[in-house]
Amino acid sequence: MDLQSTKTNDALIITVNEARIDASAAIRFKDGMRALTDGGPAHVVLDLSKVTFVDSSGLGAIVASMKQLNPGQQLDLAELTPDVAKVFRLTRMDSVFVIHDSMDSLSRRAAG
Amino acid sequence: MACQFSLSATATQSGVRDLLTGCRRALVSAKVPAAWRGTVELVWAEALNNIAEHAYADDVPGPVKIMATVKDERIAADIRDRGRPLPGLSPPPRHLPDSDGPTEALPEGGFGWFLIKGLCETVEYQRKAGENHLHLVVHIPRYTA
């Protein structure tokens, strides 16, 4: 799974460089997220701007990525594409995560 | 203009992914708007994943076939496999897993049939001659093929 991580002042930004988080990618995604977040900063933001498709297995893997965080760590989501946002809305998982419309507003907030 | 296509694969995770890629290409050719292709692909992905994960045993995957018809405002699909029948010979009721509890209790699955039933106008299942037949219809308002 192609996950790219960037450390900003106070957050770890993980960008998914693949178009799909589906059943065939779910375990690799979850394992990749564990490797990147374990022992990392308290604030983790998952940049989903390049992801155009998430099925229920992918959704489960994103939820699992949050559940496997260390105590005190938080996982936010950012830049959901329309079909991905729809899956979160339909399953009401949009109420479980803090979802940022854009990474720009996030970095402005971090800087301010 | 109506459009029909039929695609088959072995029901493994990578087989399902390849099948969905073929379906997406066919939906583009049929000029289904992008805003609706995602919904149709999600419904089909959930149905096909269920077959790969539950109908067939992990070490003995079998065939799965999808026959789709795009006509007027509807996209209908017949999905057939030769795996185990659905428990109770019926799709489970539409149930949304509870996400109100603490983080450690959040659901990581169980959304598949909820999504299928929520997004489809028709969901029909039949077990015929050792095959599972799942008929799914997605209604696409204001869309003319």
Q: Explain this structure to me?
A:
The complex is a heterodimer of chains A (112) and B (145). With 112 residues, chain A is of the alpha/beta class. Chain A has a single domain (3-111), classed as STAS domain (Transcription Regulator spoIIAA), CATH 3.30.750. Chain A has 4 helices and 7 strands, in the order βββαββαβαβα. Chain A has a 5-stranded mixed sheet. In chain A, strand 6, helix 3 and strand 7 form a beta-alpha-beta unit. In chain A, helix 1 (26-37) packs parallel to helix 2 (56-67). Chain A starts with a strand and ends with a helix. Chain B is 32% helix and 28% strand. A 5-stranded antiparallel sheet of chain B has the order 1-2-3-5-4, with helices on one face. Chain B is globular. The N and C termini of chain B lie close together (5 Å). At the A-B interface, helix 2 and helix 3 of A face helix 1, helix 2 and helix 3 of B.
Mean pLDDT of chain A: 93
Task: State the order of secondary-structure elements of chain B, H for helix, E for strand.
Answer: EHHEEHEE
Distance between the termini of chain B: 5 Å
Widest sheet, order of strands of chain A: 1-2-4-6-7
Helix content of chain A: 25-40%
Largest sheet of chain A: 5 strands, mixed
Total beta-strand segments of chain B: 5
CATH architecture of chain A: 2-Layer Sandwich
What is the C-alpha radius of gyration of chain A, as a whole number of Å?
Answer: 13 Å
Going across the major beta sheet of chain B, what is the strand order?
1-2-3-5-4
CATH fold type of chain A: Transcription Regulator spoIIAA
Count of separate DSSP helical elements of chain B: 3
**Name of the CATH first level of chain A:** Alpha Beta
User: How many domains of chain B, as an integer?
Assistant: 1
The rough form of chain A would be described as: globular
Structural class of chain A: alpha/beta
How many strands, what sense, and barrel or not for the largest sheet of chain B?
A: 5 strands, antiparallel
What is the count of DSSP helices of chain A, taking H or I runs of 4+ residues? 4
